[in-house]
Specification:
The protein is of the alpha/beta class and 204 residues long. Strands 3-2-1-4-5-7-6 form a seven-stranded mixed β-sheet, with helices on both faces. The model has no long low-confidence stretch (mean pLDDT 95). It binds S-adenosyl-L-homocysteine (SAH) and magnesium ion. Magnesium ion (MG) binds next to loops.
Amino acid sequence: MFFCAKICVGSDIMNLQQIELYAKENNVPIMEKEGIEFLTNFIKENNITNILEIGAAIGYSAIRMCLIDDKIKVTTIERDKERYDEAVKNIKSFNLEERINIIFGDALDIDVEGKFDLIFIDAAKSQSIKFFTKYEKNLDDNGFIITDNINFHGLTFSDKPAPTRNLRQMIRKIHNYLDWLNNNKDYITEYKNIGDGVTVSRKK
Ligand code: SAH
Ligand code: MG
């Protein structure tokens, strides 16, 4: 079942299922069930209300996060025009325009104002260090940075080398990111083998 503590009604669930179907049919890599359940629970348990997301795609995770509680606000960035347009449409269909601020652009080119208690990195997997270092200035002192798709569909920790050169390069970058996080003096990072693998980083 979806986690919609207060305001989730039958039509919301149908609406979410339509977005999931669209994602499947159009190969949009939205968060998997287990991952989104972890994320929404984490947000609840830590009373998170102000979220910055890098990588909106079609707005699915932003909507799921907002449906947890009326207090929650999400700023999210997407650089693909078609996905951005679809996200805008989906956000409207949930009447969440007031609580989801979606920005069209490349997260590495734009600047976001304000502080957030969660930064959720779910964009180009080879650029995680860049997203982290660019946006950590927007993190509250008690905030968290969560990064998705650390497992990269099982390839990151596989014994066999990935089948293509591009994939092998991607995997190398994910390992680099993990090493970089583990050696980061300012943060403590926990890896969780949930969904497609996530890291949770918190300022020391
Ligand atoms: N968070 C979404 C899924 C995001 S998929 C969900 O779970 O519902 C990753 C998205 O990040 C893609 O749509 C891709 O276009 C976007 N993206 C990748 N690099 C980006 C960048 N540098 N700036 C903005 N968006 C980016
Ligand atoms: Mg993801």
